[in-house]
TrEMBL record:
GO cellular component term of the entry, any: pilus
Entry keyword set: Signal
Stretches of the chain forming a coiled coil according to its record: none
InterPro entries for the chain: Adhesion_dom_fimbrial (IPR000259), Adhesion_dom_fimbrial_sf (IPR036937), Adhesion_dom_sf (IPR008966), Bact_Fimbrial_Adh_Pro (IPR050263)
Name assigned to this protein: Fimbrial-type adhesion domain-containing protein
Occurrences of domain Fimbrial-type adhesion (ranges): 41-185
Length: 186
């Protein structure tokens, strides 16, 4: 059998199959009652508590760092810590609540990075800010804190800033920094 004969037979067989299918659909048109066209969708959901708010006094905090002497920072490498808190309202961060509410939380602090510390601007130089959580873990700019099960007291997140000496040549003067944060929880 030649290649041409085989190609013609394949074409004719394919054409006959399409013609048979078309005539069957004309004789038996599809309808909404055709069991082959029915289906079922199952769906379930949940109503959850609303997102947390940040206490309006805490959303844009201004933190005044304690005055430090150049000698103290050069001797110890750091200034005195300055504590601050972020107060969450209108949410439940309680892992034991029934039904379960927000149980896991992390926070990302964004600011200019200077070797893992938050860069400051102003006429002071040779310093940067270190941010720590309430357990003393260092938080780096732009890096999320590890997800942890919520154990916050009264929905308050506690942190502290510590002024750190970054270079040998410490220049006295004023400094400031803007640090933004976002909180994720589920």
């Amino acid at each position: 059998m030649s290649k041409l004969t085989r190609a013609v037979q394949t074409f004719l067989f394919t054409a006959m199959a399409f013609a048979a299918q078309a005539s069957q659909e004309t004789a038996n048109p599809s309808s909404e009652f055709d069991p082959a066209l029915t289906g079922r969708i199952s769906m379930d959901g949940a109503i959850i508590s609303s997102a947390c708010d940040i206490d309006t006094g805490d959303g844009y905090q201004e933190i005044s760092m304690p005055g430090e002497t150049r000698g103290h920072i050069k001797r110890t490498g750091e200034g005195e810590p300055q504590d601050f808190s972020i107060q969450l309202t209108r949410c439940a961060l309680d892992p034991s609540a029934e039904p379960a509410s927000w149980q896991y939380i992390n926070i990302i602090f964004d600011g200019q990075d200077e070797n893992g510390l938050f860069r400051v601007s102003g006429n002071a130089s040779g310093i940067a800010l270190e941010l720590q959580d309430s357990q003393g873990n260092v938080i780096h700019p732009g890096k999320p804190t590890p997800w942890h099960q919520s154990t916050v007291t009264n929905n308050r997140l506690d942190y502290r800033f510590i002024l750190k000496n970054t270079v040998q040549n410490l220049v006295v003067g004023d400094y400031s920094a803007i640090i933004r944060y976002r909180i994720e929880y589920f």
